[in-house]
Amino acid sequence: MAGRGPRAAVAVTRVVALHGLDAGAHDAHRLHAPDRIWPETNCYADLWIELLHAQGMDPHAMLPCVFGLDFEGDQWTFFKPSLADLRTLYGIDVQELTLWRPLLDHALEHVGAGKLVSVEVDSWWLPDTAGTDYREEHGKTTIVINDVDIAARRLRYFHNAGYFTLDGEDFARTFWLDGEAPILPTYAELIRIDRAVVRDTATLRALSRGLLGEQLNWRPADNPVERFRSRFDADLPALQEAGLAQYHKWAFAGLRQLGAASALAAEFLRWQWADEAPENAIQAFERIATLAKTLTLKSARAVNSGRPLDATESFDEMAEAWQIAMDGTIAALARSGADEA
After folding, report:
1. Looking at the record's lineage, which domain of life comes first (predicted)?
2. What is the pTM of this model?
3. Tell me: the pLDDT tens digits for 123-134?
């Protein structure tokens, strides 16, 4: 488990919040194993999985956030753990950070005090996105700043499924040291870990079951896959006209969030109930995850070729699986409550 840094001195050249982390030898949590159906989900959920893992905490407990997933009309819910959940489960307090001075100054102050800073940055300057965005495309993504070395102009940070290093020009542009700063301040958060708690598995499971019940109360009143089906059919011609670049953005907001959330839901149920896990619900969630991944590839081919795509069978199966998964999860939670009564 990583240690927590001391308060910064008046003049500093390097500040670190979590010590003992090696970007070159980061061991990702198994939720990010490369053999998973969806090894990555979205930038915010992924970095919290790794940030908790780096502190010796179990990120499974925060996964009830995926059970309220809904189709919002032009995207699926961009799921993330609520700040209240993070405090309840891990004793971590997250508040918005007002960027009233240069980002680097804020980072030096707060990381030097043993806090972490999450901030939206331009993925153009993140070398861990090589092959996609790095020096190829500008995009908004969230990182967590952990280690800032001014003398070396080097930053170590959490992003997606890993812990990475950037330096040189990437450092300067990430902190807006060269050129103009954004016209509008970016969004940032202050992560206080001074009261963080590493709880035992039984306690985490009990707390997380309560959060699961809250999320199920917010589940869609109807089957959201059916609404997604209608929008998919309506969107496909426009996506074929726009091309693959636009399709990939659409797929990230749609199929990836549905598939990745479903895969995490299956992992949560397996962790929460272990040997008594609701296999029918787990298999249904995993079926959705697999079908969403397959449909992502089929849709990409249809967009690239301009040929029609009949996704009726895929949507029929996903809609049925969603209902089975929800019913099975609700039944498992009810049984758990009866056992504890």
Report:
1. Bacteria
2. 0.93
3. 999 999 999 899
